[in-house]
Structure formats: structure tokens, C-alpha cells
Amino acid sequence: MILLTKNPFAYTVWLMEETNITAFAKINIGLKIFDRRKSGYHDIESLFQNVDIADSLRIRPNNVGKIVIEGDIGCAPEQSTIYHAAKHFCMEFEDKSPITGVTIKVEKGIPSGAGLGGAGADAAATLFGMNELFEKRLSRAELARIGSHVASDVAFFLYGGAAIVRGRGEYVFPIEPRTDFGLVILQPTWASSTPAAYAALDNYRAIRGIEHACTSEDAAGYSINLPNEQLEKIYRSPIQKWGFENDFLPVLAEKKKQYSEMLSLLQEAGAAYVNLTGSGSCVFGVFDNAEAAQKASCTCSSLLFGEGDRAQSFAAHIIAAKPLARSMIVSYIQDCNEDTRSDKERPCYGSY
Q1: Which of 259, 280, 329, 343 has its CA 20 to 30 A from that of 303?
Q2: Which residues constitute the catalytic centre (predicted)?
């Protein structure tokens, strides 16, 4: 890729060698799941917020006509959302200026099967990074369309910060993110499968005769329990007044009592609000500020790993985290001694 930077004397040619992306995780602040549609999918209503747990992706051209994934990603490369995102991006340009291969090196920091959106974050970072690296100039909406073939939450990660999300995840209504609170996330020793969680939810409701039809639909046909304005109003209220629920929680807590125990641990440590994120397995507590969350993480550690019955009932990795106003940070490496681009390191979509 050739970039031209104008100066008073001449044009200098810069060659972009790679794009490095820090891709941040998310939590679900509430997750309403509506009845399964005839398509087999469920509409959701949720508020997503980025948090400072991250994967790192290094994306560079390889000119060998292949998609190469490097790093320990927890599955075969061809099964990863990173590979599928790269494949679908390349398919967009098969008939015009085809991409001659890409290598993506991944360092994982977001745990898998945790409800933190690592798969979607990585897919979005791949799409955004390749769009930058190969200078294809696709819009966020176009990238989100490609991402919809890969994972339901890719669209959110292309906007980032905080957003109300509906449909299968393709409807994203960005809102001004709050960054004034702190978080403690508990990651248990097990992972949670999203398809299995949905199947368990359907069975749970069928046995009990529970229906979760939407109260209304908007003009585009998206299911609504609470309108966007009301969801945002609750989000802006004091944390102690948050009434957001996650419909997966009673289903998963029935199968594993440790979910309830982890939430109780967070409440004992002073959390103003606790919940499950996504379809699990992580739970989180919200605290008044980052300092309170850091202190609470130490309290959780003492309660969890100290002497007593609780120390023997379950184990969990304790993470003190912060909410973010961005989904990723992008930096560039170019073939030159000094990069004079004003945007050589800049936050991606959703930053403030």
C-alpha cells in the first residue's frame, strides 16, 4: 500500500507494512431474550459496554494468496472468527483488486466461552484492520454487513463504547458511554457455550410454559421490551437503581449453583449491581469507581481463597476492569524511519 505525504519539497512514499489492533471485550448490562423466531434465531435487547480486557491482532500482507492465523486462539485457525472474517473480506474483492494474502498474529487476553465477546471483537478488528491495511475504504455499515456472516455482535464492535443492541445483534444504537464506574469480573473454571445456553433457555421456558414475546416492534420489525430512551435513562441513573436482568441467569444458575455463589461474593464485596454477562460463564459486579473495584477485587480474593467453606465451593479468576468508550485502538507500522501521519496511533470507532 502506497501513501503519499506532501511536504514543501517533494512527495514521500510510505509503505504500510502492518496494522496492529487492540480489540477490547464487552459486558452485557442486561440481556432480554425474546421467543425463538421461525428462522430459529432469537431477538435480543441488551446494552453493551466495552471493558479494558483485550486481544491483540497484528495484521500484515503475505503475498502468498493465503489467510494465515498465528497464535494460540483455542481452536483450529479455520474455525476461528478471525479466519472467517478475513475470508469474507477477501471475497468482497475477488473480482476487483483481489487481496493477495494476509497473516494475522493473535495474542489472546479475552477468555473464550466467557460472555465477553472475544470472538466478535476479533472478527471486527480483523475487518477493520484489513480495510485499513489494504485501503479498501469500506464504511462501518459495509463492514458490519460482512461481519454479520461471521458473528452476531460484530456490528457493535465496529462502533464500540456503549450501545443498545437489538435483533440478532445487527441493530446497534450507539449512546454516550459511561466510564465513571469500576468493575470486578469473576471468570469461573468452566466455559459456557452460547448455542447450548439458548437450547437450555428454550427448554427451561417450555417446561414452565413461559413466553417472552416482545411488547412491541419498531418499524424495522425489531422486538422491543423497553424503548431505547427508557433503557438509556436507566443506564444513566445511579448504579444502585439499575434493574437490568439477564434471561440466561436463572437457566444457568439452576444447572450450576456456583453462579449464585459468585454473585453473592460480589455483593458481599460491595457491588452496587451484579449480573451475568452474555451467556456466561463470567459474572460481574459494578462499583462506584475504579478504586472501589480494585479494593473489592482484593476482598473477593480474600473471601474466595482464604480459609472457610466458600474457598472449597468454587474457584474463579478475579479481574478488576474499567468501562471504556472505545472498542479498539489501531496503530500502523510503515516502511520509513519516521511516520508523520497525524493518525498513526488513533482510537477506532466509538472513542471519545
Answers
A1: 280
A2: 26, 153
